[in-house]
TrEMBL record:
E.C. numbers: 6.3.4.19
Statement: the UniProt record of this protein carries the keyword Membrane: no
One of the record's GO cellular component terms: cytoplasm
Family under the similarity heading: Belongs to the tRNA(Ile)-lysidine synthase family.
Protein name: tRNA(Ile)-lysidine synthase
Lineage: Bacteria, Pseudomonadati, Pseudomonadota, Alphaproteobacteria, Rhodospirillales
Function description: Ligates lysine onto the cytidine present at position 34 of the AUA codon-specific tRNA(Ile) that contains the anticodon CAU, in an ATP-dependent manner. Cytidine is converted to lysidine, thus changing the amino acid specificity of the tRNA from methionine to isoleucine.
Residues reported in the UniProt entry to bind ATP: 37-42
Pfam families for the chain: ATP_bind_3 (PF01171)
GO molecular function, one term: ATP binding
Subcellular location(s) of the protein: Cytoplasm
Annotated source species: Azospirillum palustre
Domain-level remarks: The N-terminal region contains the highly conserved SGGXDS motif, predicted to be a P-loop motif involved in ATP binding.
Length: 451
């Protein structure tokens, strides 16, 4: 991800093939989806991948998200579909429905886009989702994070390869400049659509683009900032590998959706590694929607050393029976979806849940709560009540019809048995989006491939 000395030239098929080879991990005849906005960057990625999959006998699916934020967005998405049809590339439009937030709109739109793209890939059975972020995007990301006081992780920028649930997100264009991608479109005689938000000074990235010339004059050009990202990424990867080793020693993941950390390995580890391990546990239990700042994490770790706990990242953290308990914070669990018989959902970002088809009507999935726990425990023989921390009890997924408790799939049912009358058919499984065992940050170097 260093310099791009060929600024102004189209990206050749050979260069692109080397960039994909550095990412690795493709099956024979790979099926790849692309997030396509219609801008020059994503159109160039379509053109390059169209040739690559043809050589490998694979397939390509272009996905466009219509965020519905501007009146003309539906027509623009349809125009992208027409452009893809002219290129012989299959295309789908994904719509972000529902109410939109009044603030933080770009972050919300980004989260919705990732969710819709991932779901479309899973539905189509596609393992690889290609995004068109390029060298200039990486430079802007590093600058934004530097302005926000980010540490090593933030300065590492965007990862060339990232696991996102069942989908593998790849960014094969991070070593190429925006100018070269536009040149690639021109070389094949293909037009693109300019996104007006790219020039809107309301947004930080647009302001950075406007300041790019003066920053470059001070040496902060895209090539230099991309080198910062590569070196920070190399350090991040090393730190994450050491953190994974600490978690393998210290962490116990419980199926009810909580984690216990042995304090001795945490105390023995360097502070940076202990902080990362605690942060990983918070992300797994609280979910990626609750990012924590370094200062808050440092305060929490210092408090634990003195026997004090706290709440952070949607979690309750405190000492329990000689271990650090990381459990979901009850007041943070607010989802109450209505689920049809036989339907599967992801609940609270942590549990994969399937409702029994034997229910006669839709049920509500909600946190069990203190009253629900008392009701459920009162129905059980004393030896059948598990010894769980209070926050864990209250945040278990439970099934309701109105005020009537139907069951608690994690620990036993009151309703919904299969044909032999022995096994509950409502199912819930702790499956956090942010796994403790996720791969370390990936760094791609022009010289060495993946580091």
């Amino acid at each position: 991800m260093g310099g791009d000395p060929g600024d102004g030239r189209p990206v050749s098929r050979e260069e692109f093939a080397r960039a994909l080879a550095a990412l690795g991990g493709f099956e024979p005849a790979p099926a790849i989806a692309i997030g396509v906005s219609g801008g020059g960057d994503s159109v160039a990625l379509v053109l390059l991948l169209r040739h690559w999959v043809a050589e490998w006998g694979g397939s390509l699916l272009a996905l466009t998200v219509d965020h519905g934020l501007r009146p003309e967005s539906a027509d623009e998405a349809a125009a992208v579909g027409q452009a893809m049809a002219r290129l012989g590339v299959s295309h789908r439009i994904l719509r972000w429905d529902g109410a939109k937030p009044s603030s933080g709109i770009q972050a919300a739109a980004r989260a919705a886009r990732h969710r819709l793209l991932g779901a479309a890939c899973a539905e189509a059975g596609i393992l690889h989702l290609a995004l068109a972020h390029h060298r200039d995007d990486q430079a802007e990301t590093v600058l934004l994070r530097l302005a926000r006081g980010s540490g090593i992780d933030g300065l590492a920028g965007m990862a060339p390869v990232r696991a996102d649930g069942a989908v593998r997100v790849i960014r094969p264009l991070l070593r190429f400049s925006h100018d070269r991608l536009l040149a690639t479109c021109r070389a094949e005689g293909v037009d693109w659509i300019e996104d007006p938000s790219n020039r809107n000074p309301r947004f930080a990235r647009a302001r950075l683009r406007a300041a790019r010339e003066s920053l470059g004059g001070e040496g902060l050009d895209a090539g230099r900032l991309s080198e910062v990202a590569r070196r920070a990424g190399r350090a991040r990867a090393a730190l994450e590998q050491v953190t994974a080793a600490l978690l393998a020693e210290a962490a116990t993941v419980h199926p009810e959706g909580w984690i216990a950390l042995a304090p001795a390995p945490l105390r023995a580890a360097p502070p940076e590694i202990a902080l990362r391990a605690l942060g990983a546990a918070l992300a797994a239990v609280g979910g990626p929607a609750h990012p924590v700042r370094d200062e808050a994490l440092e305060r929490l770790l210092d408090g634990l050393a003195e026997g004090q706990g706290g709440t952070l990242g949607g979690c309750v953290v405190r000492m329990r029976r000689g271990a650090v308990m990381v459990a979901r914070e009850p007041v943070a669990v607010t989802e109450r979806p209505t689920v049809a018989p036989g339907e599967a959902i992801r609940w609270d970002g942590r549990f994969d849940l399937r409702v029994s088809s034997s229910h006669r009507r839709p049920v509500t999935v909600a946190a069990l709560g203190a009253d629900g726990w008392r009701e459920w425990a009162g129905r059980q023989a004393p030896k059948g009540v598990p010894d769980l921390p209070v926050p864990v009890r209250e945040t278990l997924p439970s099934l309701w019809t109105g005020a009537d408790l139907l069951g608690v799939p994690m620990i036993g049912m009151c309703y919904g048995f299969d044909a032999d009358g022995q096994h509950p058919v409502d199912r819930a499984r702790f499956c956090p989006l942010s796994s403790l065992g996720r791969p370390a940050f990936t760094v791609v170097s022009d010289r060495d491939g993946i580091i």
